[in-house]
Amino acid sequence: MKWTKALSVGNEIIDNQHKELIQRVNDVLEACNKQKGKEKIEEVMKFLKDYTVKHFSDEENLMKKYQYPSYEEHKKIHEDFVKKVDELDEKIKKEGINLSIIMFVNKTLVDWLINHISKEDKKVGEHIRKVKGEI
Ligand SMILES: [Fe+2]
């Protein structure tokens, strides 16, 4: 998964955090694809989980600061993603790495993130720029 300009939401803090988040998803993918040991995979999953929580909380604080009108809805979407990551973590702990897990990371996490950033987070970025008088 790659961060490109097309994924920019027009806010440096959010963009930089998205790059880091994508990196951590990639670390999970790499650990799965190269069939690194269980320990390594659990470690990268923990990094992904921790950073997801940090990023969402920072993004939610920004939304509050700039009184984003769809704050509650957006927060709920974040909670759904955290659930998906938790679900994945549970699956890995139970089953180890298998094709269905790799598909889950690729389809569910990667697609979800690209979709969320390009739709929902762009609206947040635009709102912030409007409030700041940048657009
Ligand atoms: Fe978001």
Protein model, in words:
The protein has about 140 residues and is an all-alpha fold. It has a domain at about 50-135. The chain has 4 helices and no strands. α3 packs antiparallel against α4. Fe (ii) ion binds near residues 59, 74, 78, 116 and 121. The site of fe (ii) ion has 6 residues, from α3 and α4.
Q: Mind sketching the topology for me?
A:
Layout: H1 12-33, H2 38-65, H3 71-95, H4 99-132
Helix pairs in contact: 1-2, 1-4, 2-3, 3-4
This protein binds fe (ii) ion.
Radius of gyration: 16 Å
Number of helices: 4
Can you list the ligands bound to this structure? fe (ii) ion
Largest pleated sheet: none
In short:
This protein is mainly α and about 140 residues long.
Pick out its properties.
single chain; 135 residues; mainly alpha; 81% helix; elongated; binds fe (ii) ion
